[in-house]
Design brief:
Blueprint (H helix, E strand, L loop, with lengths): L10 E8 L3 E10 L2 E11 L14 H17 L8 E5 L1 H5 L3 H11 L4 E3 L2 H15 L5 E7 L4 E7 L2 E8 L3 H8 L7 H15 L3 H7 L3 E5 L1 H12 L7 E2 H12 L17 H17 L4 E5 L3 H13 L4 H12 L4 H15 L10 H13 L12 H11 L7 H12 L18 H17 L12 E5 L2 E6 L3 H4 L1 H16 L3 E6 L2
Parallel strand pairs: 1-4, 4-5, 6-9, 9-11, 13-14
Antiparallel strand pairs: 1-2, 2-3, 6-7, 7-8, 10-11, 12-13
Helix pairs in contact: 1-3, 4-11, 5-10, 6-10, 8-10, 9-10, 13-14, 13-17, 14-16, 14-17, 15-16, 16-17, 17-19
Membrane topology: Peripheral membrane protein
Main location: membrane
Enzyme class: hydrolase
Length: 504
Amino acid sequence: MTETNHSSQPREIAAIDLGSNSFHMVVARIVGQSLQIVSRHKQRVHLASGLDKQQNLDQAAINRGLSCLAMFAERLQGFEPENVRIAATYTLRQAQNAHVFLQRAERILPFPIEIIPGTEEARLIYLGVAHTQPDKGKKLIIDIGGGSTELVIGEEFDTHILYSKHMGCVSYNKQFFANGKLSHKNIAAAQLAARQKLESIATKYLDIGWDKTLGSSGTIKAIREVLIAQGHSDGVITSARLKRLLDDITAFKHQDDLDLPGLSEDRKPVFAAGVAILSAIFEALDIQDMHFSSGALREGLLYEMEQRFRHSDIRVRTATAMAKQYNIDTAQAKRVQTTAVDIYNQIDTQPGVKKTELSTLLSWGALLHEVGLSISYPGFHRHSAYLLRYSTMPGFNLEQQTVLSTLVRFQRKALKLAEMPELTIYKRKHLYPLIRTLRLAVVFNGQRSDEPLPKLKVSANNEHWQLTLPDGWTKENKLLAADLKTEQEYWHKAGWELDVNELD
């Protein structure tokens, strides 16, 4: 249990990685300026093997995942939500029925589960490795998971290039070794498919270059353990050793017979696929040797949590960079942002929802609400929504990007609320106050003027909001008054009400 109420006790934080092959949890204490790992937990769930042709998770895979989360929940009793981060990766990104798993998981583990984009997974993996492997110079980090493989080049704590490719030991085992045969033909087919995935990026990586290659997570760890058991005590993975390992694998003909020193029983079904992928990466990127790093996604989550506690949030840098990239009118964005935050601070939100997190999302949404103007003015709110939903935004999970996209999509024009996307961490009703707030902030700053706005007083009773303005203000600001009247009509058609009054 955490001791958050006693300043003498170090703060405990936990990170969970819901991977395609295994679920991992790591718990750490923040001691001074460093993290101290206090426990690790791992469960093989083979989530990716439960994906059918329609990309739906079968019931057995869902149940395996939920059983693991129930065990993790025991360790996390007493933890505050801000001290736990849970990231879901490839399989839950792909699963059409991911919401079913998330809804059931919420009843077992009372913490938000973030489905993160592949590029965000790659960034967090790099962060985890960089913190646990403080080598100087540029590093190439490779992480072969159950459903995807991440490749990142970076230096110190900053990334230069990162990609996430749809190839993993579980998905490739299902695709190329479904019959269990360990033939040269099956391995060659898996290698060729991996090389094709890498074809479009290999030149970029080779042009940037790197000083050291590091591998993280289960597949590369398993290969290293087998090599050590074969007498390679340094545990270094080389191109020549990989080739010999592939020969050793095919000597067994079938996965059931696979018997290599150092290879665990539960890793056997996906081992050949993992080695085939890694050998293809070695060939495509002309890698000579690779060392193993114990850092991975969950460590990246932990270290980023620690940084956020120290008020260093990468999302601030991301939002600022995006505003610059799309050449937004910064002064106007700040005006809308200031007005939105002022209005939102006056209203009561849904009980049980952290107002600070929603306020932060509103603030970023206000800052970026006009990014779509870089495409065209007509329908720019829709362009803005598309950019915020599908751009690479380091530090943001898919749900947060969806929230930002939704806010800017509904900043103006008709409120077609039926078009709102489904959410898992938040509910639609949590977003409605944000949408109303942003719309009002946009209306009041419609003239893009530096003239100070009057003091806006807002009170809210669910869908019924009351706006109070200084006496005579609407007569002196007829254009804005007309815009407010139009806004009232939009609200009314959506089943909301906006009353506008003036102080006597």
